[in-house]
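Sample intake sheet
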Amino acid sequence: MTTTTSSANPYLKDPEVQLMLRVRDGDEAAFAQIVATYQDRLIGLLTNLIGDRATAEDTAQETFLRIYRARAGYEANAKFSTWLFSIAHNLASNARRTLGRRKETQLAPAPDASGPVPQDQLAAEKSALQP
Protein backbone atom coordinates (compact mmCIF):
# COMPACT_ATOMS: atom_id res chain seq x y z
CA MET A 1 0.00 0.00 0.00
CA THR A 2 1.39 3.37 -1.00
CA THR A 3 0.82 6.60 0.82
CA THR A 4 -0.21 9.75 -0.99
CA THR A 5 2.30 12.58 -0.89
CA SER A 6 1.90 16.07 -2.24
CA SER A 7 4.28 15.28 -5.12
CA ALA A 8 2.16 12.25 -6.09
CA ASN A 9 -1.14 14.12 -5.71
CA PRO A 10 -1.19 17.47 -7.51
CA TYR A 11 -4.53 18.39 -5.92
CA LEU A 12 -2.90 18.69 -2.51
CA LYS A 13 -1.28 21.93 -3.70
CA ASP A 14 -4.68 23.52 -4.37
CA PRO A 15 -5.47 26.10 -1.62
CA GLU A 16 -9.16 25.12 -1.60
CA VAL A 17 -8.26 21.46 -1.15
CA GLN A 18 -6.03 22.56 1.74
CA LEU A 19 -9.02 24.39 3.25
CA MET A 20 -11.21 21.30 2.95
CA LEU A 21 -8.50 19.16 4.53
CA ARG A 22 -8.51 21.60 7.45
CA VAL A 23 -12.32 21.23 7.62
CA ARG A 24 -11.84 17.45 7.67
CA ASP A 25 -9.51 17.91 10.63
CA GLY A 26 -12.11 19.94 12.55
CA ASP A 27 -11.30 23.56 11.61
CA GLU A 28 -14.68 25.35 11.71
CA ALA A 29 -13.18 28.65 10.47
CA ALA A 30 -11.99 26.89 7.31
CA PHE A 31 -15.55 25.71 6.61
CA ALA A 32 -16.86 29.25 7.11
CA GLN A 33 -14.26 30.43 4.61
CA ILE A 34 -15.40 27.83 2.06
CA VAL A 35 -19.02 28.94 2.47
CA ALA A 36 -18.05 32.61 2.12
CA THR A 37 -15.99 31.85 -1.00
CA TYR A 38 -18.57 29.77 -2.84
CA GLN A 39 -22.00 30.84 -1.57
CA ASP A 40 -22.82 33.60 -4.07
CA ARG A 41 -21.40 31.75 -7.07
CA LEU A 42 -23.22 28.56 -6.06
CA ILE A 43 -26.56 30.32 -5.62
CA GLY A 44 -26.15 31.99 -9.02
CA LEU A 45 -25.37 28.69 -10.71
CA LEU A 46 -28.24 26.90 -8.98
CA THR A 47 -30.67 29.69 -9.84
CA ASN A 48 -29.77 29.21 -13.51
CA LEU A 49 -30.09 25.43 -13.26
CA ILE A 50 -33.31 25.34 -11.25
CA GLY A 51 -35.00 28.55 -12.33
CA ASP A 52 -36.21 29.51 -8.86
CA ARG A 53 -34.11 31.67 -6.51
CA ALA A 54 -35.65 30.39 -3.25
CA THR A 55 -35.15 26.77 -4.24
CA ALA A 56 -31.61 27.59 -5.37
CA GLU A 57 -30.82 29.09 -1.95
CA ASP A 58 -32.21 26.00 -0.22
CA THR A 59 -30.22 23.76 -2.54
CA ALA A 60 -27.01 25.73 -1.87
CA GLN A 61 -27.59 25.30 1.86
CA GLU A 62 -28.14 21.57 1.36
CA THR A 63 -24.92 21.40 -0.70
CA PHE A 64 -22.88 22.94 2.13
CA LEU A 65 -24.62 20.71 4.65
CA ARG A 66 -23.69 17.61 2.65
CA ILE A 67 -20.10 18.78 2.34
CA TYR A 68 -19.94 19.31 6.08
CA ARG A 69 -21.45 15.91 6.82
CA ALA A 70 -19.01 14.20 4.43
CA ARG A 71 -15.95 16.06 5.75
CA ALA A 72 -14.54 13.08 7.67
CA GLY A 73 -14.30 10.99 4.51
CA TYR A 74 -13.00 13.72 2.23
CA GLU A 75 -10.06 12.75 0.02
CA ALA A 76 -8.33 15.08 -2.43
CA ASN A 77 -9.04 13.10 -5.62
CA ALA A 78 -9.96 16.20 -7.66
CA LYS A 79 -10.16 19.94 -7.31
CA PHE A 80 -12.38 20.91 -4.40
CA SER A 81 -14.61 23.01 -6.66
CA THR A 82 -15.22 19.97 -8.88
CA TRP A 83 -16.48 18.01 -5.87
CA LEU A 84 -18.62 20.89 -4.61
CA PHE A 85 -20.23 21.59 -8.00
CA SER A 86 -20.85 17.87 -8.59
CA ILE A 87 -22.82 17.69 -5.35
CA ALA A 88 -24.66 20.91 -6.25
CA HIS A 89 -25.48 19.66 -9.76
CA ASN A 90 -26.93 16.40 -8.42
CA LEU A 91 -29.05 18.28 -5.90
CA ALA A 92 -30.20 20.71 -8.62
CA SER A 93 -31.29 17.76 -10.78
CA ASN A 94 -33.30 16.41 -7.86
CA ALA A 95 -34.85 19.84 -7.23
CA ARG A 96 -35.84 20.26 -10.91
CA ARG A 97 -37.41 16.81 -10.89
CA THR A 98 -39.35 17.66 -7.73
CA LEU A 99 -40.51 21.02 -9.11
CA GLY A 100 -41.61 19.31 -12.32
CA ARG A 101 -43.78 16.85 -10.41
CA ARG A 102 -45.35 19.43 -8.15
CA LYS A 103 -47.49 21.69 -10.30
CA GLU A 104 -49.29 24.28 -8.24
CA THR A 105 -52.62 25.75 -9.28
CA GLN A 106 -54.01 28.94 -7.81
CA LEU A 107 -57.59 28.50 -6.66
CA ALA A 108 -59.65 31.63 -7.16
CA PRO A 109 -63.19 32.20 -5.90
CA ALA A 110 -65.99 32.23 -8.45
CA PRO A 111 -66.63 35.76 -9.84
CA ASP A 112 -70.28 35.75 -8.70
CA ALA A 113 -69.50 34.56 -5.17
CA SER A 114 -70.37 37.04 -2.46
CA GLY A 115 -68.14 35.42 0.13
CA PRO A 116 -65.42 32.85 0.49
CA VAL A 117 -66.00 29.53 -1.26
CA PRO A 118 -65.58 26.47 0.98
CA GLN A 119 -62.34 24.55 0.28
CA ASP A 120 -64.27 21.31 -0.26
CA GLN A 121 -66.24 22.91 -3.08
CA LEU A 122 -63.09 24.34 -4.71
CA ALA A 123 -61.37 20.97 -4.60
CA ALA A 124 -64.40 19.26 -6.14
CA GLU A 125 -64.54 21.85 -8.95
CA LYS A 126 -60.83 21.48 -9.74
CA SER A 127 -60.89 17.68 -9.57
CA ALA A 128 -63.66 17.62 -12.18
CA LEU A 129 -61.15 19.06 -14.65
CA GLN A 130 -58.72 16.19 -14.16
CA PRO A 131 -58.91 13.11 -16.43
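Comment: The two ends are 63 Å apart (CA to CA). The helical segments are 15-24, 28-50, 53-69, 80-101, 119-127.
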